[in-house]
């Protein structure tokens, strides 16, 4: 659970997120479910941004595209090949400080998923 706090700065350990989600803190009149859903959406977007900005993302994407090409009709395989070429020629996602080792949990996630895709393909 400690890792979750380091991923999203809006989540506090002292129960602040729970009281904010309930609408008690700060006089928020939003329904609790709407506040919780908005927080979850923000967290999901943050995680997507971190994944897409990771230095290993291009190789993960390439492995995913190769998996999708297996058994695909020729026109779909051609389209996927074009997408793969565009992704390789794009020049990187550009995460601020995009270094391996800044987030060991994310690094492990990226490596594990890349391995799983390479084994399948």
General description of the model:
It holds the Pfam family KNOX1. The chain is extended. The two termini are 34 Å apart. It is built from six helices and no strands. The protein is mainly α.
* Cα separation of the termini: 34 Å
Helix tally equals: 6
Mean pLDDT across every amino acid position: 73
Order of helices and strands: HHHHHH
What coarse outline follows from CA principal-axis ratios?
extended
SS elements, strand count: 0
Uncertain spans, ≥5 residues at pLDDT below 50? Answer: 1-6, 8-26, 91-97
Class from helix and strand fractions: mainly alpha
Q: Work out the radius of gyration.
A: 19 Å
Helix content: 55-70%
Domain tally: 2
- In percent terms, what proportion of residues is strand? under 5%
Sheet with the most strands?
A: none
Organism: Zizania palustris
InterPro entries: KNOX1 (IPR005540)
Subcellular location: Nucleus
GO molecular function, one term: DNA binding
Key features of this structure:
extended, 2 domains, 6 helices, about 120 residues, mainly alpha, disordered N terminus
Layout: helices, strands, pairs:
Elements: H1 2-7, H2 16-21, H3 32-52, H4 57-69, H5 74-89, H6 104-120
Helix pairs in contact: 4-5, 4-6
